[in-house]
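Board notes, transcribed. Complex of a protein with fe (ii) ion.
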Amino acid sequence: MARHSGVRKRSTEARPAGKRPSAHTPRCATPESTAAQASRAPRVRGRRIAEQESKHARWVGELLSARRLPIPAEPDTARERYWKRTLPIISDLASGAAVGAHAERMRLWRIEAIVSDAQAPADVRAVFTRIVPEERFNERAFRSLSGEAVRHATLDGHEQGMQVLGLIP
Ligand SMILES: [Fe+2]
């Protein structure tokens, strides 16, 4: 009885023309699965952004607690706020992402300024140093989910919000 050599023999049959699998496309990929992935992508990115933002809020809350500063339980919605000028603009995914992109860009400038300020307290810089890379991801993700035209269309509300914050005269 012949023993199995353990070497798999290659098929000598010729592969029919045009049936060669692409080196760039996974064999299981179909147009349906690609479309399904594309439609899931915004939700996946949105969930990741939400998780990161909630973690940042927790880190900032811990920083405030460590410095014995009060943590507001609820935002004061009666007073003028940045978000009062921007949230009403949102009508769909693209405009929501555009509003998010403007807000994240604005926050990123402020956070990067704190992180690079050698005079800023070490505990504050440490928290924002952890936040910066994820904020960069979030800003890029919001930008990719919106588009230049819708970002331009939402710029006025963003600038009004910046005025409320005293960031532009
Ligand atoms: Fe953020």
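The chain is about 60% helix and 0% strand. The two ends are 92 Å apart (CA to CA).
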